[in-house]
Amino acid sequence: MKQVCTQKRLNDMKITLKKYLSFFCLVGIVFACTDVEQLELGEFSAEFAIPLFSSDLSLQDIISNRVDNTTLSVSEEGQLTLNYTGNLLTQTAADVFEFTAALVPIEVTDSVFHIQNEDFSILGTIEIDFLNLKQGQLNLQYQYNEPQDLTLEVTIPQFVKDGEPYNQTISTAYTGDLPVTGSLLGVNLEGYQIQGGDTLITILYNARLEDGTEIILPSFLMLLTNLEYSYAEGFLGNDIYNIGKDTIVIDFFDNWEQGIVNFEDPKINLTIFNSFGFPVDANFIDLDVIGIEGERLSLQSLAIDDGVKVFHPSLDQIGETIVTNFSFTKENSNLTDILAVGPASVEYELNGEPNPEVGSEVRGFMTDSSSINIQMDVELPLNGYTFGFALRDTFDIDLSEYENVRSAEFKLITENEIPLGLDLEVTFVDENFNVVDILNTQEDNNYIEAAPVNSDGIVNGAAEKTILDSFDADRFSNIKSANKIIVRTSFNTTNYTIPQLVQFNANQSIKSRMGLKVEIAN
Is 70 exceeded by the pLDDT of residue 65? Predict the structure, then answer.
């Protein structure tokens, strides 16, 4: 909404009117001015009726998007639907299953030595059957105190490549100094599969001196570095993890002063993209609607109590993403009731429960790129009934230069194509927003009927209203101190006992034209 009157135009008009020594006309205020159109003022003399303002404010203009998370969709029939979308909540494979070796060397204390899950940050209830490594290095270092050469054979049965377990023989020569140190550094583990079980990794070694004596190495360290897997399979736990929380801001009521709106068929849609190969429940810790007055109302639904079952890819769908769609509606929740407060936002928090109600015999999988992504959006179709809320607009006015006014008359012409009745209040205020005057305070004169609708609630015409208000010299002199006009529009359905279901669309509009005829004393 913007004002298009320029001071130059007013000055030119004033000079012209002084030339004819009788009247001049200033055409004033509208809700918003999008185009300058010719204003038909009926009984006003066209010679002195200078049309400066008109507006054609569509419903789409009124509810135009003001925040990034909002889209306004229009169907082929012109039906409007507001969609408010939350942030994408994501849990990655790294969040669910962290597989990294200990940052310090593992001391191998016997020729048969087991490394447990906790040495690889595999905590909780996860049981790995096998995982495929896409990178990693094996590092070994050992010492012995015998003045002989040594042959060391190392086998790790769970490290398998091309069907064969890892096996390496290392020869170490005695050079005259004790202890003797040997090492094997940077062995590339790419392509190996770690085949787990009750023990994730077992190290077997045979240390034999040149005289054939087998010994236990007094110092034997193993360090695995830069381990990354591409695929893991097993029972991937039932430890609950937090998916995240978010707030969806709803800006529909940003300019509405009061009242309630009822949406006939609202939805809160949950869309889940899952590439983890095991079942998950998405559980709501809370899902609340926050009203424009700060009220907090909780959504009630069996899906809140029981969680939403998330579909997952099967073993023959590795690498695919399976989509789960779920909607809270008026049929399965109290959504319509809690949205009636006039929502300012929707707040929610979820967690994920893997493998709900199943035992550890159920096997699943994940890849290094597996993730679960959750998107929430609020869908508000503008079909329904609405009552008792108001829109307010403020813009500047300057009448201070007009002297010797004998009389004046405001004329407001409104055509309403929206199926809601309008109560108009036009207020003159000063720079501190103190009320100076109110245009035509008679209630009946300020009411504009809703656009007529057929039996299906579809608009089939427009309601038209002309409002006149006369000012004498004293009253006009008083409003010269006003520098702003506030237009407050209250929307109401025509039937307050049993609200009629009406249908809104993008092209429905309020067309308004307002002018001021002023008579100047000689």
Answer: no
SS (H, E, C) 42-106: CCCCCCCCCCCCCEEEEHHHHCCCCCCCEEEEECCCCEEEEEEECCCEEEEHHHHCCCCCCCCCE
Alpha helices in 168-215 (DSSP H): none
Q: What is the mean pLDDT of the chain?
A: 80
E strand or H helix that includes residue 13: helix 7-20
What is the residue type of 488?
R
Show the 3-state SS of 372-407: EEEEEEEEEECEEEEEEEEEEEEEECCCCCCCCEEE
Residue 353 to residue 364: CA distance in whole angstroms: 14
Are the beta carbons of 372 and 91 closer than 8 angstroms? yes
Chain center to CA of 45: 54
Encoded tokens for 172 = 């170490």
Which pLDDT value is given to residue 254?
Answer: 64
**What is the reported pTM?**
0.69
At 390, list the tokens.
Answer: 């108001």
Q: Are 413 and 281 contacting, i.e. CB atoms less than 8 angstroms apart?
A: no
Cα distances (Å, whole numbers) of residue 498 to 229, 282, 328, 480, 493 = 64, 39, 26, 45, 10
In this prediction, residue 467 has a pLDDT band, given cuts at 50, 70 and 90, of: confident
**Pairing state of beta strands 383-396 and 502-503?**
antiparallel
What is the full DSSP assignment across 292-340?
A: TTS-EEE---HHHHH-EEEP---GGGTT--EEEEEEE-TTTSSHHHHHT
Contact 504, 264 (CB under 8 A): no
Among positive and negative, which fits the CA dihedral 356, 357, 360, 365?
Answer: negative
Backbone φ and ψ of 295, nearest 5°: -65, 145
Q: For residue 48, give both structure tokens.
A: 């002195």
Find residue 25's DSSP bridge partners.
Answer: 517
Q: Which amino acid is at 50?
A: I
Burial 360-373 (b: 16+ CB within 10 A, else e): eeeebbbbbebbbb
Other Cβ atoms within 10 Å of 212 Cβ, number: 7
| Closest C-alpha among 425, 427, 409 to residue 476 | 409
Distance (Å, rounded) from C-alpha 81 to C-alpha 71? Answer: 8
In the chain, how long is the greatest CA-to-CA distance? 133
**222 with 159: CB under 8 angstroms?**
no
* Number of CB atoms found within 10 A of residue 294's CB: 8
Q: Is 401 exposed, middle or buried (0-12, 13-18, 19+ CB in 10 A)?
A: exposed
For residue 50, is pLDDT > 70? no
Q: Please, are residues 48 and 25 in contact by the beta-carbon 8 Å criterion?
A: yes
Domains in the chain: ranges and CATH: 7-63+386-520 (no CATH), 72-93+242-383 (2.60.120), 100-236 (2.60.120)
The per-residue pLDDT for 442 is 64
What is the rounded distance in angstroms from the CA atom of residue 443 to the CA atom of residue 35?
A: 30
Per-residue pLDDT at 64 exceeds 70: no
* 391 contacts: CB under 8 Å, gap ≥ 6: 62, 255, 256, 257, 488, 489, 490, 491
